[in-house]
Amino acid sequence: MNLKKIIIFIVFCFAGYSIGRIGHVFGGFLITPHHWIYGLLIFGLGWFLRKKKIGNILMAFGTGVFISDLKDFFYFRIYGQDINETFRFWGLD
């Protein structure tokens, strides 16, 4: 991989992480599937499209969304509200 591809991957991964964290803070009270599931689905879609540039972008974005809700993945929380705690942007929640 050249430097340009790595930078693009990091930018889209951070964008996915940011959107996941913002969704957690502002939408954590909703009774919906946890967003690590959406990150996994986006990554899977990118995996099937990996031969195209959009596939790599989707994999990076899905990775960021998945990482932003990693704690719920570890506890295998699939559906429901987020547990009330102090909201931080730089956290694995």
Protein described:
The chain is mainly alpha-helical. The protein has a domain at 16-78. It is built from four helices and two strands; from the N terminus they run H-E-H-H-H-E. It has helices spanning 3-27, 35-48, 53-68, 70-74, and strands spanning 32-33, 79-80. Helix 2 (35-48) runs antiparallel to helix 3. The protein is elongated and about 40 Å long. The N and C termini lie far apart (31 Å). The model has no long low-confidence stretch (mean pLDDT 83).
Which sequence of SSEs, written as H and E, runs from N to C?
A: HEHHHE
Residue-averaged pLDDT, rounded? 83
Uncertain runs with pLDDT below 50, 5 residues or more? Answer: none
Largest sheet: 2 strands, antiparallel
Strand order of the largest sheet: 1-2
Percentage of β-strand residues: under 5%
Number of strands: 2
Number of helices: 4
Radius of gyration: 14 Å
Shape: elongated
Oligomer: single chain
Helical proportion? 55-70%
C-alpha end-to-end distance: 31 Å
Structural class: mainly alpha
